[in-house]
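Structure request: FAS1 domain-containing protein, Lentinula lateritia.
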Amino acid sequence: MGSLKVLAVVAAISSVSFAVNPISEAFDSLGLTSFASAAAALNDSSEGQALLSMVLSGGNYSILAPNNDAFSDASALTSDSTLLLDTLAYHILRGSFSSSNSSSLNLTSATSPNHTIGRSMLNDSTYVTLEGNASQVVAWTTENGAITFLNQPSNVSVVNSTRINGTGLAVYVLSGILSIPPSMSLLLTNSTNTTSIAGLLNSTMIPSANGTNDTIGNILDAQRGITLFAPSNSAFSAVSSTLPVLEGNLTAFTTVLQNHIINGSTLYSSEIVNGSSMTSAAGEPLTFSTNSSGTYVTSGSTTAKIISTDMLCMNGVVHVIDNVFLNTDSDMSAASSAYNYATSEATKLVSETGVISATATGASGSSTSSSSSSNGSKNGAAALSASAHYMTLLAAVVSFVVIGSVLA
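Returned structure:
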């Protein structure tokens, strides 16, 4: 089906008066016939029709449209209607990301090592379990003069763009199809710098909250809204002489692990501000600092450099750090307060548009705000207790797996 017919059908479904010719001309001029055909397939489901209707409702949306070459080997995608819908939803960003108001535009992008984060239309719980039922995000950066997308198995970059006159739509042509972020456990497995922690999470069976055995990875994957500061393989090796001191002290191990996690909040690198702080799952401050050499996070007396940021997963984000926080301090009242505050703030993420930043989300001030919300709901406290239960079980095997692998 030609792009003119496709968009005519879309406009009819949306029940919105639309100038079809400019839209058709824009897609034709960019050679996006395969993308237009894929979009036409969305008409076969009510969910697809709803997505198309929303995009053509008159608001500002940014469409990341893979070119024809990208679809040349995508038969598995185009033959699965549900996966196709979710994948296309992941290619539509809420809001404007243009650095220009003219007809020719450029995608707003930070320069590496900094990243730009935007929220997509993908919110199918099969693939996304972020806090507040928020939609999944897309991350990209400018490197060597090209805008490239992060967390992709192969390079995907912006090759062309146009603004569709008379609409709120901007189209950015991509060299490939974006992959939807995987589970946290699979993400860690596929990263060469986190294989130690991935092996622990994905192979160790422990009792879950309902009494059945499950892997630690699966249990953590089930949580909503997690920021994990994951020590690299070399970071674990560097503290091999210190870890045995904590062996057998289950409380200390639990606290150390909790001080690597922000519970109930997904904190992207674009939300980290110099001098800001967040509250860990153990209730201790995680303080951030930046300088010309990079971004650092401090817990207790230990500071680690963030060496890899914005590794996206279905229920949060992972930042790889070059040290282990051997912080055994905890304040569970502060942890509960922070979790409850994060849960209440998460409802705002559903309507989030444009570039995600500390200013837009208020993330940099959340630790201060949470401290004033100490009388949190029972639901928040219950969720935190469950998380603490999982972390306690996790601590029981860390001394064996981590220390054992170091000594082996």
